[in-house]
Structure formats: C-alpha cells, structure tokens
Amino acid sequence: MLTALFVGFSKTGIPGAGVLVVPLMATAFGGRLSVGALLPMLIMGDCFAMLWYRKHAKLDHVWKLAPWVIVGMLLGSVLLWALGERPGKDLLNPIIGWLVLAMLAVNLGRRWFGERFAPHSPGGVRVCGSLAGFSTTVSNAGGPVMTIYLQGMGLAKEQMMGTNGWYFFIFNLLKIPIYVVIYFLAPQNPIWTGHTLLFDLMAFPVIAVGAVLGRQLLPRMNQRAFDFTILFLAAVAAIKLIV
Predict the structure, then answer these.
(1) Considering the entire predicted model, what is its pTM?
(2) In contact, 211 and 5? CB cutoff 8 Å
(3) What is the H or E stretch that residue 115 is in?
C-alpha cells in the first residue's frame, strides 16, 4: 500500500513524490496489468487535487496542450495494443526517461537558450503535449513531463497543483475507454482483472491519507524549495525510467 500513499501525496503535495509508483506497481503486477491497476488510483488522487486547489487552476494551460496530448494518446494506444504480450512499459520507459532529462536540461538552461526553447513556445507545447499523452497512455509515466511543463510556466505552488489535478483528471478519464478497447482486442492479456480492481478498492483509503498529508505539507514549503524539489524528483523519476 506504499504506492497508494505516494499517489495521494503526489497529487496534493509534491508532484514528483510518486516517483516510485510506476516501478513498484510493475513489480507487483507486471508491466501490462500495472498500467490498468494504477489508473483508478490516479483518478482518485486527481479528485483530491481538484477539490482542494480548484480555485487556483489555470485551465488555459490544459486546453493549450489538449490537441497534442490527444495525438500522443492515440499513438500510445496503437503501440500499447501492438506490443501484445510484451510489457510495453519496460521497452518505452528508457526512451521517455531520456526525453524527460533533455527537457530538464532545457528548462534549467532557458536563460541562455532563449524563449523559443521554453516549454510554452509553440514547439515546446507540441513536444510536451505529445510526449505527455504518449507516456501516460503506455505506462502512466506522464507526471515528469507535466512537472517540467508547468514549472516552466512559472506557476505558484497552488496554481501548479490545481492545474496538474485538472489535467490528469481529464486525460486519465479519457484513458478508460482506450483501455477498455484494448482489453477486448487482447482479452488473453488483460489490462484489468478482478484482483487489480480489488486492490484499487483497498488502496482508496490509503490514497486519501496520502492526499491529506500532501496538503498539510504544501503550505509549509517556500516557492524556491518547491521548484527545486519537483525538478529534482522529476530527474529522479527520469533516471528510474531509464534504469
């Protein structure tokens, strides 16, 4: 249940706190089943983020990304289906990890590279949106990408948490019909089972505890410490995906 605690904490406290969730779930359920097992947990965590930070959300950042996120989700859906029995997360995570590290380098060097390399440039929006949609569909690993994008917008702590919550709630819900279709296309390799759904039900109270803890911590962090922490954890998450 450690994964459930991290899910709740990451949704309301520090986005990168869920750094160990994906590998822990993959270890417990295997790559393919972990994708479906984690989705209901993430959606519940998103609900807490929206409830507590809804007044701070900057939805214009979500709508700006939306078309490219959908493109990435469609590409990820095709690949997840095509991989069949192979655990797509294990194959794709190193690629995603290297791309996230590259985005981190750009984010830290924006003052030298100029605004055209910033996440909010037209090219940055296309790359971030497509990569976020692709990575969240195939492995639920879209968190580091959105961390870099939203941090680059210069949002305050509460604004970032609210925007992040709305973004993932919307697109995690969109993943449900995608996974249902993939489930029926490959019933021999299900994304959900009775065991994973039972695990989700048992995890919900722990997610709530993690969400409360995260909300208590957030007001006690100054902006500089907050920015450093999420960038550091995003780097750790990327390395976890690579190794």
Answers:
(1) 0.86
(2) no
(3) none
